[in-house]
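Q: Could you fold this chain for me?
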Amino acid sequence: MQKYFEKIPGERIYLSPLNADDAELYTKWLNDIEVTRWLTQTHRIISLLSEREWLENTAKQGDNHQFAIVLREGNRLLGNIGLTNIHSVYRTATFGMFIGEAEDRSKGYGTEALKLLVDYGFRWLGLRNIDLDVHAENVRGIRCYEKVGFREYGRRTSALLSDGIWHDCVKMEILAENWPNT
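A: Sure. Below is the predicted structure, expressed as structure tokens.
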């Protein structure tokens, strides 16, 4: 039985609809502080049951824009990427992503996945603006977003708590008119 389906093709990876059978792996990742510290989700406890329910409910939604990031070589799950808070009138959305395993980070998979998702958002969903919030200390993430074309448009001072220390939340965006394929 096929587990992943190539919805948005890339070079080394592709974006696939979510598969609820991945609940155990997602639960592992979403309880790993090294993953969740940048998602501002460290305070949440994710159970296998709640993650399975989230995956099943999200997968059932026809207008869902959450994807599994899958490595072509071996069809291996790397993480998750998606657009949320999609506003059809203002044509805006918010982006989120994570790569689950430490050894898969800093290899360009996140940058490739983000390029695929931004292109999909602008070309197929008709979005005009995609934004994100990022922890000011997440240098690797900020570098990835800047490579794709996101720019900082503001900061929320001392808005994120990590290891008992308050940090800034950086606000970034990319506009359709600045995307080369629109």
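A (continued): The chain has five helices and eight strands.
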